[in-house]
Specification:
The chain has helices spanning about 10-25, 40-65, 70-95, 105-125, 130-160, 160-185, 195-215, 220-240, 245-280. It has one domain. The chain starts with 9 loop residues before the first helix and ends with a helix. By secondary structure, the protein is mainly alpha-helical. The longest helix is centred in the C-terminal third of the chain and has 33 residues, at about 245-280. It is about 80% helix and about 0% strand.
Length: about 280
């Protein structure tokens, strides 16, 4: 296991980091502030899309614990991610119970919960070996695949061009977490060519999607503001990803990935509002 020395003063500092992230809304999804009586398709796309990010987020936090990168903050991130999975599953289940979703979507949602249960079990064990971290990462990728499938299925149900924007912006949340996870896997000396390849392709995907969002006809002052913030936060995050995986580089990736996630979540929420207005 890779270790780092931490003084007694370091733990309160890490807790302050976690509290600051929560206070800034960085760890909270746009839909966590209250449940709707009946979920619309725009909200369902956002909820299901969050599962993609949560799968990678849990693996990222687990790898952070292994590397001892802000471990107390990573523990808080893991705990909140688990709560968000439960909350999101419960809200989407209400849609199934009300007959809003086709049976196939229900089967996919059940599979998402099954895969998250496995991921939760894996990440409950202390992160003491590279093998455990790799296993958690692989399970997070399996969870991501089914979460992507159910998100796309709900998007198709919306039958509105702006539904794609909710999905696309929401996917950026996942990319922010997977990029950070793979950076940490590299730091953990995981010798996977796929890790390097995915880092490169995800960065290209993020840049391309950001340009597509900026070129989209759906726009409001709030959306334009978040797009500008996304541009700047992406530059900070991209710069951090290029740093050597030393203490400073690892901490920079941990914090900038959180800030980028926050901005992309707010942007996804703005597109969700725009879609809700279209669907009524």
């Amino acid at each position: 296991m890779l270790t780092r020395e931490f003084s007694a003063d370091a733990m309160p500092c890490q807790r302050r980091v976690a509290v600051q992230w929560v206070a800034a809304g960085i760890l909270l999804p746009t839909w966590a502030n209250g449940a709707q009586a009946q979920m619309g398709l725009s909200g369902a796309i956002n909820y299901a899309g969050w599962f993609r990010a949560l799968s990678q987020r849990m693996a990222k936090a687990y790898c952070q614990q292994y590397l001892q990168v802000l471990p107390a903050a990573a523990l808080d991130v893991m705990g909140l991610a688990r709560k968000m999975v439960q909350s999101g599953s419960g809200e989407l289940a209400k849609g199934m119970q009300s007959g809003q979703w086709p049976a196939e979507v229900g089967r996919q949602l059940a599979e998402v919960q099954k895969q998250f249960a496995l991921l939760n079990q894996m990440t409950t064990a202390p992160a003491t070996t590279t093998a455990l971290v790799v296993a958690a990462s692989e399970q997070s990728d399996r969870t991501l695949l089914i979460a992507q499938a159910v998100t796309e299925a709900i998007e198709k149900m919306a039958q509105a061009p702006s539904a794609r924007l909710v999905n696309l912006a929401g996917r950026q949340r996942m990319l922010s977490q997977r990029l950070a996870k793979n950076y940490f896997l590299n730091a953990a000396k995981v010798d996977f060519k796929v890790v390097q390849a995915q880092l490169s392709s995800d960065a290209a995907d993020f840049r391309q999607a950001l340009q597509a969002l900026k070129a989209a006809p759906v726009s409001t002052p709030a959306i334009r503001n978040e797009l500008e913030l996304a541009d700047s936060q992406w530059l900070f995050f991209e710069s951090a990803l290029r740093r050597p995986a030393d203490d400073a580089g690892l901490s920079a990736v941990a914090t900038t990935s959180e800030r980028l996630l926050s901005v992309m979540d707010k942007l996804t929420g703005q597109y969700e509002v725009a879609l809700r207005e279209v669907l009524g």
